[in-house]
Amino acid sequence: MSEYQYYEFQAIDRPLTPGAQQAVAQLSSRVSPHPWRAVFTYSYGGGLRRNPEDLLADYYDAMLYLANWGSRRLMFRFPRSLVDADRMRQYNVETTEYPSDVVQVDTKGEYVILDIQLNEEEGLGWIEDEGWLGSLVGLREAMMRGDDRVLYLAWLKGLTMVYGADEDAFEPPVPPGLGDLTPALETFVELFDVEADMLQAAAERSAPLEPRTLTEDDLRRAIDALAPEEKDECLLRLAQGEPQLALALKRRLGLLDSAGPQRSTEARRTVAELFAEAEAIAERRRKAEAAAAEARRIAELEALAERGDEVWDEVDALIQRGQAKFYDKAVQLLKKLRDLAEHQRKTVVFQTRLNRIHDEYSRRSALMRRLRNAGLHTE
Fold it and tell me: Helix (H, G, I), strand (E, B), or coil: what is residue 177?
């Protein structure tokens, strides 16, 4: 299978200048200048001429990388004043032998770069490339508002894929709302293949979301408390088109909790405890699925019983048609009749009728072979 790589970059806070567009376009003859977006694709080897981290830091706010061997990489650029880089670093996976690169947080000038990388040895499988980043960009603003759920989800996925995850390490702070994901978070779970049982185990310690609602009176009171020079400075920044100014102002006014939404107050689990809870959830799910499958099987057998001798007549009719596909259908019906006999404790009656079929059609070698392979022997 040939290699295929897909890079998509998006500007969110402000468009690229014409000069920046031309600089990006020079990286590939297949990229046209665009103020908001650039896509690079590579087949049969090759790759991006610049480090994606540098390209993001210089021009864009979000990047998604996909490769057909299963690699996934999601990056966001944040203004340094609007995020807490140290808090974000809590969500990298601790290992016993070497640092994990699942969640990396770096500063480049006036920006913080979040880099989520998943490179599973066995791959995650290939998916269509278009449309994913547009569904994920909402995560960036959520993080600037203090929502760490995507960071926790990346950490959770990292546990299942890094070598030597430290099972004695404690999980990072559990953000609220893991049991009520936004569409963007659901897209992340799908794209990065976060295991459902691990997510359910995590959600059991996640508090419900309690969004803070700001009224106009709240805003007026907070603004009135600002010094006149601060109000003038804010108006100047507004006139200059500063992106995310509303978030910065709310943070300055104390109307945006810089530590994020309320987290769980329960004692944090070790990685080993989280794995154990996920396995317990998986075992309950397997038992429930098995019970449901058995209930469906019994219902099918009881429906078969209501047809009585009609089913045996159908078996005879199928055999008499003398073709392989009809033999296969006859054998499948006989297997169901055997299961019904075991359910009703009438195996002797079933075996007597099966023996008759062996006697009557013993010269049909193709049928006899199918009966033997299905364990439908004479006695």
Answer: coil
Q: Which amino acid, residue 155?
A: W
Q: Strand order of the sheet with strand 72-79?
A: 37-43, 4-10, 62-67, 72-79, 111-118, 103-108
Q: What is the pLDDT of residue 259?
A: 40
Tokens of 129: 């490339």
* Residue 255: HSE in the Cβ half-sphere, 13 Å Cα cutoff: 18
Residues 6+ apart with CB under 8 A from 30: 40, 41
Give CA–CA dist 304/321, Å, rounded: 22
CA geometry: angle 335, 340, 376, nearest 5 deg: 30
Q: How confident is the model at residue 97, as a pLDDT?
A: 66
Q: What six digits make up the tokens of 99?
A: 């640092």
Burial class of residue 295 in the structure, from the number of CB atoms within 10 Å of its CB (0-12 exposed, 13-18 middle, 19+ buried): exposed
pLDDT at 105: 93
Low-confidence spans in the chain with pLDDT less than 50: 258-261
Coil, strand, or helix at residue 146? coil
CB 353 within 8 A of CB 312: yes
Rounded Cα gap, residues 181 and 329, in angstroms:
46
SS3 at position 375: coil
Per the rule left: phi > 0, alpha: psi between -120 and 50, beta: everything else, 123 is left
Long-range interactions of 294-298: CB distance < 8 A, separation 24+: 297/339, 298/343
**Which residue do the tokens 């106009």 mark?**
216
pLDDT for residue 308:
85
Neighbouring CB atoms inside 10 A of 374's CB total 14
- What does the DSSP assignment read for 239-254? HTT-TTHHHHHHHHHT
pLDDT at residue 258, rounded to an integer:
39
Number of helices (H), then strands (E), belonging to the chain: the values are 16, 6
pLDDT at position 67, please? Answer: 86
Read off φ and ψ for residue 197, nearest 5 degrees.
-70, -40
Strand ranges (E), 169-288? none
Per DSSP bridges, beta strands 37-43 and 72-79 are unpaired
Six token digits for residue 243: 């992106």
Residue 94: closest CA among 174, 166, 158, 163: 166
Residue 23: predicted pLDDT: 93
**The predicted structure's pLDDT at residue 293:** 93
CA proximity to 260, closest of 103, 90, 116, 113 = 90
